[in-house]
Structure formats: C-alpha cells, structure tokens
What we know:
This protein has a four-stranded antiparallel sheet with strand order 1-2-4-3, covered by helices on one side. It is globular and about 45 Å long. 43% of the residues lie in helices and 13% in strands. The protein has helices at 2-17, 41-51, 76-100, and strands at residues 22-24, 31-36, 56-57, 68-72. The chain has a single domain (2-98), classed as Aspartate Aminotransferase, domain 1 (Alpha-Beta Complex), CATH 3.90.1150. It is α+β, with helices and mostly antiparallel strands. It has three helices and four strands; from the N terminus they run H-E-E-H-E-E-H.
Amino acid sequence: MRRWVAKEGPWLAGQLSGLSGLRPLPSAANFLLVQGEGSLLGLRERLESRQLILLRDCRSFEGLGENWLRIGLQDRRGNQRILRAMRTELARRIALNRSTKKTDQTGQLPPLGPSAQTSS
C-alpha cells in the first residue's frame, strides 16, 4: 500500500498542479488535499452531477473550507478519469465565462463556486 501511495500520490499531484486555479498539497496519505483560488463547491457539484465523480469538500474540516477538496487516490485508470472530468468541467467554466464575458475588474475569471454553475 505504501509503495502504491508513494507512486500514485505524486503522479496525481503533478497532474493536478497543471490545472488552472488548483494547488494540490504534498501527501503521504491515500488522499490529496487540493486548494482552489476560490470556492470549489461548484466544481465538486458539477463533477458529481455531470461526471459521476464524487470528491469530498472540506467545509467540515477545521481550518479548511469551501476552497478545498479532498481527493481519494484511485488506481491509475480511476485517477485519469478524475483528471479528465476535472479538465472538462474547468474548460466548460472558462468557455462559459469567456462567452458571457464574466470577468472581474482585474480581468480574472470568477471563483469556481456555485455562482459559476450552468444548467447544461
């Protein structure tokens, strides 16, 4: 189990670090904590409803909150599925915001939270 976690954890963290707005923390456990630039609740909800991917939000963890997700490590195929789903949902959000020009005064996209949800 330790060898698997030592191999799969860093691999998944490396892949997640390439996704805009997400920062995975190093971990020796069988899960990763991922911090978002804003709320990740909308992303988590879209992953569940559209992609059938269940990730745990961290609102119940003292010191964390809605800007954090807990991702349990899967086998490589499962982790690749999570990454594909996350890329899809993040790309949808970016496309939606570009098409509706929903940027703040700095030109940044709004947080990944519920307000970024769409009905598609």
